[in-house]
Amino acid sequence: MNLELLVFTLMASEPVLKLKEGDPAPDFTAATSGGGQVSLADFKGQNVILFFYPKDDTPGCTKEACAFRDHFAEFTRQGAVILGVSTDPVKGHDKFVRKFRLPFRLLADEDRKIVEAYGVWGQKSFMGRNYFGTHRVTFLIGPDGRIKKIWAKVNSAEHAAEVLAAL
């Protein structure tokens, strides 16, 4: 493998985040599963788990969403709000929520404003194919609206427990 291809492959597999812990979380407003809209400002004074995922109803994304579902009562007891974000449309989110009985809202970011503001949209590589998409990254946003923790490397099945431990 030549050096150029190696650099591209490494860059494509991990996002280069422009935000860091302690930064103010970028505000947003987005359409949600189940209808309606939410803004980050709606949750001032609460911990917000904002998890970005590539695509509804795919194996890794389903594992991650279901893990958050399975720990949902614990997150609620901690006073935390869970919001999932992908570039899929609301209709796709609604189907995903119904199929897996997800108790939290999914945000439709079809214009990619949120994924770009959080720096999770970028080059990816899968099975030798390079493309642009959403990286699987989670942000824990504190009650003060600042980023408390960032998980740039996520194990889909175990991630929810890891986030819960950080609360």
Q: List the strand order in the largest sheet.
A: 2-1-5-4-3-8-9
Q: How many individual β-strands?
A: 9
- CATH C-level class: Alpha Beta
Give the SSE order as H and E letters: HEEEHHEHEHEEEEH
Strand content: 25-35%
Low-confidence stretches: 1-12
What is the mean pLDDT? 90
CATH topology: Glutaredoxin
Q: From the structure provided, what is the oligomeric state, counting identical versus distinct chains?
A: single chain
Question: How would you describe this structure to a colleague?
Answer:
By secondary structure, this protein is of the alpha+beta class. It has one domain (3-166): Glutaredoxin (3-Layer(aba) Sandwich), CATH 3.40.30.10. Helix content is 32%, strand content 28%. The chain has helices at 3-13, 59-70, 72-77, 90-100, 113-117, 159-166, and strands at 29-32, 37-39, 47-52, 80-86, 105-108, 121-126, 129-134, 137-141, 147-151. A hairpin with a 5-residue loop joins strand 8 and strand 9 (147-151). The radius of gyration is 16 Å and the shape is globular. Mean pLDDT is 90; it is low at 1-12.
